[in-house]
Fold this protein.
Amino acid sequence: SVMTLTIKAFGWDYPDDPWILHGEGQGNRGVWLSQDQVKGLFEAPIRQVWDATAQQIGGTLRGMWRDVRDISLGFHVTDRVAPIDVTLSAFRKAFTYQVDRWDHNAVLPRIEVISDLSGARSIDVQLCDTPDFNPGTDPLVTGYGNPILPLRAGQPNYYTPDVVTHFTAGTTSASGLITISNPTPLPMFHKFVVTRCQATLPD
């Protein structure tokens, strides 16, 4: 069988009720990704500065930044699950320009990409411009809309749930090893949590 990605969107309003946009179960709420309208979802942007001296052959990298990630996603919004005005409204409300400052439990909308190789990876997004929705005719008559959402991820890299490894020491002293791996080309930040004791941790 052909392996495919599964792509889901989790709105800020109902972060536990996904819109399945591609792959198995796509269109569960009447919305899925449009072909050729997916930009910025796969590669995080890199910006570099190079210079060269007067006699230098070639150049030298002087700095590199990982900028915010801009994503543009187009969608087929249909009346297959609910009336088109209900689906359009619910889907638009799932995306916001910023975290709700009045809600201390508020979260940003989240895009989740699932693959057999990497499992589930997520990226938090927010609207960074006005959505492009110009149906050209009455969507209530056609039962269809094609909004294109301009999204931005302030943290451009995907993240996964924390991997936790436990180590239990004896009543007096103990030493041992835990396995740490980083299957990515990016630095990985490790966190150690210890109970009250005298501990020696790796650098």
Notes: The longest strand covers residues 69-78. The chain has a mean pLDDT of 90. The helical segments are 84-93, 139-142. The first helix runs from residue 84 to 93.
